[in-house]
TrEMBL record, chain A:
It is found in: Mitochondrion outer membrane. GO terms for biological process: monoatomic ion transport; protein transport. Belongs to the Tom40 family. It comes from Flemingia macrophylla. It is a multi-pass membrane protein. This is Mitochondrial import receptor subunit TOM40-1. InterPro entries: Porin_dom_sf, Porin_Euk/Tom40, Tom40. One of its GO terms (molecular function) is porin activity. Keywords: Acetylation, Ion transport, Membrane, Mitochondrion, Mitochondrion outer membrane, Porin, Protein transport, Transmembrane, Transmembrane beta strand, Transport.
TrEMBL record, chain B:
This is Mitochondrial import receptor subunit TOM7-1. It is a single-pass membrane protein. The keyword Transmembrane applies. Keywords: Membrane, Mitochondrion, Mitochondrion outer membrane, Protein transport, Transmembrane, Transmembrane helix, Transport. It comes from Flemingia macrophylla. Residues 1-26 are annotated as: Disordered. GO terms for cellular component: mitochondrial outer membrane. It is found in: Mitochondrion outer membrane. The keyword Repressor does not apply. Its main location: mitochondrion. GO terms for biological process: protein transport.
Length: 301, 72
């Protein structure tokens, strides 16, 4: 009479053959990016999204405000611009995603994501302009295994890249990437690690281009999370540290951050009504004496 | 001596022509891929958004055509 009795420490024992699938390599710093890098803008912004059916939507967006042009001197030069952007999105979840946005000056941003099979995904994105030699395109092939993901990238200008990330324990995943840029004759290797639990996420990334990026996000409660990030480039001796908070409340979402470059920023999204959002954005750069304020309205889901 | 010089010259010219044939084959390939990429870029630039709109208008439930232009 053999009865199977589960071992008493079964709940605490890790099944190393059944680890969760890690998040994709390019989304490693996702929580820190979402908290510390909101979509700050200057001027007035109006977005209107119209859903024609469950899968298809059209998007109209107007942005009026000063845009910065790169200048050699330390002063920032801004010229006032206004543009209208038309976009269309088709999402057939989860198999196909088509996303396109076109601006009045002729720039097109396009993204395609297609599931070729259960584990293999094809992604492509392109930014096309009318100016010669300023267009970029990139194609990715992603393969998702049981507890690993790999990606192969091909871009214009002879850009090749590959990355691999593997779950090592229930909470820790390690990964690496290599890339080769033919046009600039550069190649590089990078390694990354991510440790996450329900309450916190810590990530680290090192690359042979000299970049070291460490981030830590702690979820203090259901509504509040705090994030910090440290970025340094040991070849160009450039260091930036930033701290930020993210309050997700019932009617609004408020994100703020302070930087070691003397930059303080905040971003508020307030839900006025169903489908109507009011946005306020502020970025104060005390070192460069550049103050940017923006307001806007987003209509539609 | 003149014949040896002419033979050498002929040898050089034949090698030169073979190298130029190889070079022109790879150059042809590069030219064709550049031409194809240029055409693909123009097609994508003008045709991607209309393609998404056509696929969306033909998905079901099929939205009426007036919804495409009306702001409500």
């Amino acid at each position: 009479m053999a009865t199977t009795v589960p071992p008493p420490a079964a709940a605490a024992k890790v099944d190393y053959l059944n680890l969760p699938c890690p998040i994709p390599f390019e989304e490693l710093h996702r929580e820190a990016m979402m908290s510390l890098k909101p979509d700050l803008f200057e001027g007035m912004r109006f977005d209107f999204t119209k859903m024609l059916n469950q899968k298809f939507s059209l998007n109209h967006s107007v942005l009026m405000g000063p845009t910065e042009i790169p200048s050699q001197s330390t002063e920032t030069i801004k010229i006032p611009t206004a543009h209208y952007e038309f976009g269309s999105t088709f999402i057939d979840h989860p198999r196909l995603l088509l996303w396109g946005r076109i601006l009045t000056d002729g720039r097109l941003n396009a993204r395609v994501k297609c599931d070729l099979s259960e584990n293999l995904t094809f992604k492509a994105n392109a930014q096309l302009t009318n100016e010669p030699h300023m267009s970029h395109g990139m194609i990715n092939f992603d393969y998702k295994g049981n507890d690993y993901r790999t990606q192969f990238q091909l871009g214009n200008g002879a850009l090749l890249g590959a990355s691999y990330i593997q779950s090592v324990t229930q909470h820790l995943s390690l990964g690496g990437e290599v890339f080769w840029a033919g046009q600039h004759r550069k190649s590089g290797v990078g390694y990354a690690a991510r440790y996450n639990t329900d309450k916190m996420v810590a990530t680290g990334q090192v690359a042979s281009t000299g970049m070291v990026l460490l981030s830590y996000v702690q979820k203090v409660s259901e509504k509040v999370s705090l994030a910090s990030e440290f970025m340094c480039n040991y070849l160009s001796r450039d260091v930036t540290a930033s701290f930020g908070y993210d309050y997700i409340l019932r009617q609004c979402r408020l994100r703020g951050k302070i930087d070691s470059n003397g930059c303080v920023a905040a971003f508020l999204e307030e839900r006025l009504n169903m489908g109507l959002n009011f946005i306020l954005s502020a970025e104060l750069d005390h070192r460069k004496k550049d103050y940017k304020f923006g307001f806007g309205l987003t209509v539609g889901e | 001596m003149a014949s040896r010089v002419s033979l050498k010259a002929k040898g050089k010219s034949s090698k030169g022509s073979k190298a130029s044939e190889d070079r022109s084959a790879s150059e042809c390939l590069k030219e064709w891929t550049t031409w194809a990429m240029r055409k693909a870029k123009v097609v994508t630039h003008y045709g991607f958004i209309p393609l998404v709109i056509i696929i969306g208008m033909n998905s079901d439930p099929k939205p009426p055509l007036s919804q495409l232009l009306s702001p409500v």
